[in-house]
């Protein structure tokens, strides 16, 4: 699907979609349990991939008419899957499920689409092998397809922290149901640390104790997953909130935009509220009620470190395109290892719209004052976050902006374009 966006002002109320990060972890945690109900879950292409894995491990995920997920778990020990686990485009699924597969008494094969088969899995495979499982890349390059043979008993392992925090999450979640538990020593500084904090929060909500240590993290073995009252509710997603929030900062009319469901949590991407405010937008976050009100104002470029908030880079880059001065996004090298190289993708696609950028290995600088944001045709790069960020640029561009391959928003925000229309954006979908 291609989507063409005309310059538009926005107003109204937006509801935050549920968090993709929390939903992945909750589905898998319920799978590790005897069973649980997950309320307010995000049902997207990525989270459906995790749900399918639960089914192949011997559990079951049933989605009711009210959106609740009723999950029968495999109670700590997954079955050997009867088929290959296809993780589609979901890197979170592959990493979390790879560690779960190492608990099975047999062999599991995992794969994904072309993009996922290019993403690094080597450090996690090495860690699982060091812990007693057999974990290999079929091509010997640390990338999927993967072959994992368990069972894993636990122990102590060292792993780099600067490639993906999801390796840490995967080991902690699996480690709780091993015999020995797992102690993780970090070889390098941890990037995207708030995502591990999310994991610790979800584990605690499911009755599992995991903790920071002087050198990394640890989780004791022999634990059971069981949320209080048998239910867990997923909070709103601040990665997704970044898009209506930025839309309001760029193009809100006098009424502004109100975003609901924005309750505080461990998500690092709550930083987007402060970032938009620092750039000059009128922002008011009522944390108790979970509402954010935002109105447009002249924006000015700032410097933003995305070491802990990699998913915000595309949104910040678009804000920089409409701001005066330079917006410099630093500590961004790990953002190159997502669904696509998001640093290069944003530089290239914004360039097609007349935006001047300077790309370095670990940074992206957007020269707002040297740019003239004009309509044009851009590629979504098969990446949901690139697509949504470019849609924001279309609100302020001079002329129509067409985004190719826009259906990939289904990965995290299936109703994104419907929401834009509800806020007053003029857009046209073409198959």
TrEMBL record:
<feature type="binding site">
    <location>
        <position position="21"/>
    </location>
    <ligand>
        <name>3-phosphoshikimate</name>
    </ligand>
</feature>
<dbReference type="Pfam" id="PF00275">
    <property type="entry name" value="EPSP_synthase"/>
</dbReference>
<dbReference type="GO" id="GO:0009423">
    <property type="term" value="P:chorismate biosynthetic process"/>
</dbReference>
<keyword id="KW-0963">Cytoplasm</keyword>
<comment type="function">
    <text>Catalyzes the transfer of the enolpyruvyl moiety of phosphoenolpyruvate (PEP) to the 5-hydroxyl of shikimate-3-phosphate (S3P) to produce enolpyruvyl shikimate-3-phosphate and inorganic phosphate.</text>
</comment>
<dbReference type="InterPro" id="IPR036968">
    <property type="entry name" value="Enolpyruvate_Tfrase_sf"/>
</dbReference>
<feature type="binding site">
    <location>
        <position position="165"/>
    </location>
    <ligand>
        <name>3-phosphoshikimate</name>
    </ligand>
</feature>
<feature type="binding site">
    <location>
        <position position="166"/>
    </location>
    <ligand>
        <name>phosphoenolpyruvate</name>
    </ligand>
</feature>
<keyword id="KW-0028">Amino-acid biosynthesis</keyword>
<keyword id="KW-0057">Aromatic amino acid biosynthesis</keyword>
<feature type="binding site">
    <location>
        <position position="164"/>
    </location>
    <ligand>
        <name>3-phosphoshikimate</name>
    </ligand>
</feature>
<dbReference type="InterPro" id="IPR001986">
    <property type="entry name" value="Enolpyruvate_Tfrase_dom"/>
</dbReference>
<feature type="binding site">
    <location>
        <position position="119"/>
    </location>
    <ligand>
        <name>phosphoenolpyruvate</name>
    </ligand>
</feature>
<feature type="binding site">
    <location>
        <position position="338"/>
    </location>
    <ligand>
        <name>3-phosphoshikimate</name>
    </ligand>
</feature>
<keyword id="KW-0808">Transferase</keyword>
<feature type="binding site">
    <location>
        <position position="311"/>
    </location>
    <ligand>
        <name>3-phosphoshikimate</name>
    </ligand>
</feature>
<dbReference type="GO" id="GO:0003866">
    <property type="term" value="F:3-phosphoshikimate 1-carboxyvinyltransferase activity"/>
</dbReference>
<feature type="binding site">
    <location>
        <position position="20"/>
    </location>
    <ligand>
        <name>phosphoenolpyruvate</name>
    </ligand>
</feature>
<comment type="pathway">
    <text>Metabolic intermediate biosynthesis; chorismate biosynthesis; chorismate from D-erythrose 4-phosphate and phosphoenolpyruvate: step 6/7.</text>
</comment>
<feature type="binding site">
    <location>
        <position position="166"/>
    </location>
    <ligand>
        <name>3-phosphoshikimate</name>
    </ligand>
</feature>
<comment type="similarity">
    <text>Belongs to the EPSP synthase family.</text>
</comment>
<feature type="active site" description="Proton acceptor">
    <location>
        <position position="311"/>
    </location>
</feature>
<dbReference type="InterPro" id="IPR013792">
    <property type="entry name" value="RNA3'P_cycl/enolpyr_Trfase_a/b"/>
</dbReference>
<feature type="binding site">
    <location>
        <position position="192"/>
    </location>
    <ligand>
        <name>3-phosphoshikimate</name>
    </ligand>
</feature>
<dbReference type="GO" id="GO:0008652">
    <property type="term" value="P:amino acid biosynthetic process"/>
</dbReference>
<feature type="binding site">
    <location>
        <position position="342"/>
    </location>
    <ligand>
        <name>phosphoenolpyruvate</name>
    </ligand>
</feature>
<feature type="binding site">
    <location>
        <position position="385"/>
    </location>
    <ligand>
        <name>phosphoenolpyruvate</name>
    </ligand>
</feature>
<feature type="binding site">
    <location>
        <position position="20"/>
    </location>
    <ligand>
        <name>3-phosphoshikimate</name>
    </ligand>
</feature>
<feature type="binding site">
    <location>
        <position position="25"/>
    </location>
    <ligand>
        <name>3-phosphoshikimate</name>
    </ligand>
</feature>
<dbReference type="InterPro" id="IPR023193">
    <property type="entry name" value="EPSP_synthase_CS"/>
</dbReference>
<comment type="subunit">
    <text>Monomer.</text>
</comment>
<dbReference type="GO" id="GO:0005737">
    <property type="term" value="C:cytoplasm"/>
</dbReference>
<dbReference type="InterPro" id="IPR006264">
    <property type="entry name" value="EPSP_synthase"/>
</dbReference>
<feature type="domain" description="Enolpyruvate transferase">
    <location>
        <begin position="7"/>
        <end position="419"/>
    </location>
</feature>
<dbReference type="GO" id="GO:0009073">
    <property type="term" value="P:aromatic amino acid family biosynthetic process"/>
</dbReference>
<feature type="binding site">
    <location>
        <position position="91"/>
    </location>
    <ligand>
        <name>phosphoenolpyruvate</name>
    </ligand>
</feature>
<protein>
    <recommendedName>
        <fullName>3-phosphoshikimate 1-carboxyvinyltransferase</fullName>
        <ecNumber>2.5.1.19</ecNumber>
    </recommendedName>
</protein>
């Amino acid at each position: 699907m291609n989507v063409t966006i005309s310059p538009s002002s926005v107003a109204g109320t937006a509801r935050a979609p549920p968090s993709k990060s929390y939903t992945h972890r909750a589905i898998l945690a319920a799978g590790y349990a005897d069973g649980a109900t997950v309320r307010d879950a995000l049902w997207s292409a990525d989270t459906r991939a995790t749900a399918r894995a639960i089914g192949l491990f011997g559990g079951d995920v049933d989605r009711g008419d009210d959106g609740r997920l009723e999950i029968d778990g495999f109670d700590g020990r997954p079955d050997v899957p009867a088929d290959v686990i296809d993780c589609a485009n979901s890197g979170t699924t592959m990493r979390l499920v790879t560690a779960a597969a190492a608990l099975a008494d047999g062999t599991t094969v995992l794969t994904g689409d072309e993009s996922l088969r290019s993403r690094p899995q080597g450090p996690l495979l090495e860690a699982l092998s060091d812990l007693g499982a057999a974990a290999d890349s079929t091509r010997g390059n640390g990338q999927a397809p993967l072959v994992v043979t368990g069972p894993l008993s636990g122990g102590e392992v060292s792993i780099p922290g600067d490639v993906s925090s999801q390796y840490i999450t995967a080991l902690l979640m699996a480690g709780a149901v091993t015999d020995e538990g797992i102690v993780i020593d970090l070889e390098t500084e941890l990037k995207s640390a708030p995502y591990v904090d999310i994991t610790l929060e979800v584990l605690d909500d499911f009755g599992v104790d995991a903790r920071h240590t002087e050198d990394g993290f640890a989780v004791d073995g022999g634990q059971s997953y069981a949320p209080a009252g048998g239910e867990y509710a997923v909070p709103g997603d601040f990665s997704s909130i970044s898009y209506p929030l930025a839309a309001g900062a760029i193009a809100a009319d006098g009424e502004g935009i109100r975003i609901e469901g924005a309750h505080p949590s461990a998500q690092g991407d709550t930083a987007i509220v402060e970032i938009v405010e620092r750039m000059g937008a009128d922002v008011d976050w009522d944390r108790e009620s979970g509402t954010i009100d935002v109105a447009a104002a002249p924006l000015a470029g700032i410097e933003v470190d995305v070491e802990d908030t990699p998913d915000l880079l595309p949104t910040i880059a678009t804000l920089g395109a409409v701001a005066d001065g330079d917006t410099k996004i630093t500590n961004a090298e790990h953002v190159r290892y997502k669904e696509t190289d998001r640093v290069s993708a944003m530089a290239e696609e914004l360039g097609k719209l007349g935006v001047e950028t300077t790309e370095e290995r670990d940074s992206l600088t957007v020269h707002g004052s040297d740019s003239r944001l004009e309509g044009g045709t851009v590629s979504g790069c098969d990446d949901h976050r690139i697509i949504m960020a470019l849609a924001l640029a279309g609100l302020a561009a001079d002329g129509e902006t067409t985004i190719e391959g826009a259906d990939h928003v289904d990965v995290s925000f299936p109703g994104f374009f419907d929401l834009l229309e509800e806020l007053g954006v003029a857009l046209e979908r073409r198959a």
